[in-house]
Amino acid sequence: MFIPSEAVYAEIHGSLTEVVDESHRLRVWIVSPTTMWALLNTVRAVLKDVQMREQADVIQAEVGLLLQDATRLDDRVGALERHFNQTVDDVRKIRISTDKVMRRGERIGELQLESKNPEAEEDGTSELPFSPPARTNRRSQIRPQTSARSPGPCDRPANDQALRRRTRSRPLGPSHRP
Description:
6 helices; rod-shaped
């Protein structure tokens, strides 16, 4: 309640304390011209604080949802990484198996060449319909090499004479598998 005179406002607060107490109980503020601006600024600050608290709750709820999404994304990236690592391991194992199959095929081809026609090998001709395929480095076809690395056993050219010596001295059979 606005009292336009400072003198009347001072008299009410000085001598009529029961009126001031009753106004506070009814939530009515008695103000003078000088206290009105202070009261208006206080009410405005309280309303602004209420709005900020409401928005803070919304922001906190959104941050909580964002953290849930980030956790879910992290779980999915972890699962994808595990699947990718498993795929890389499977491809590595397949490369090992194909390299072993190719080496065994070459040994069998060399044995067949030596046992069927030893003279043909000396003059460069062969009568066998099967000749072992040339070894290629298929690893570079699967995954391009991005960094320099030392050559592995699959990257070196096969030494034909050393391979022939090994296969001649060792018979193939169930008890002598390489």
